[in-house]
Amino acid sequence: MSGEPDFKWKQCLVIRSDVKMSCGKKCAQVAHAAIGAYENAGKEAKKAWLSEGQKKVVLKAAGERALFELKTIAEMAGIPCTLIQDAGLTEIPPGTVTAVGLGPARSEELDRITGGLQLL
């Protein structure tokens, strides 16, 4: 049995830790972030990430400002990203910023941006 696979590409999905959401709600917001960021990625990144098995890492950030900062840094680095705002149909008010999706992008590029965040 060989060691862990060497993933060169991944997505980082970051959810706010200061908004009270059920586990299912958090999962839905992270799923929105994953799809949105993927849709914003280029053909090469999509193909490379898909061929490796679509690695995703789910992280948490302290609040809305942190999500906006992560998105801005990712945009400046040319990394596909998306900010998720909830429709407000269930648990939280409409327009609440809940998550940000980054990538698929090269793992080392995402690590430079998200390396200080904790896993969810």
From TrEMBL:
PANTHER family: PEPTIDYL-TRNA HYDROLASE 2, PEPTIDYL-TRNA HYDROLASE 2, MITOCHONDRIAL. This is Peptidyl-tRNA hydrolase. GO terms for molecular function: peptidyl-tRNA hydrolase activity. Its EC number is 3.1.1.29. It comes from Methanofollis liminatans DSM 4140. It catalyses: an N-acyl-L-alpha-aminoacyl-tRNA + H2O = an N-acyl-L-amino acid + a tRNA + H(+). Belongs to the PTH2 family. Keywords: Hydrolase. It holds the Pfam family PTH2. InterPro entries: Pep_tRNA_hydro_II_dom_sf (IPR023476), PTH2 (IPR002833). The lineage of its organism: Archaea, Methanobacteriati, Methanobacteriota, Stenosarchaea group, Methanomicrobia. The natural substrate for this enzyme may be peptidyl-tRNAs which drop off the ribosome during protein synthesis. Gene3D superfamilies: Bit1. One of its GO terms (cellular component) is cytosol.
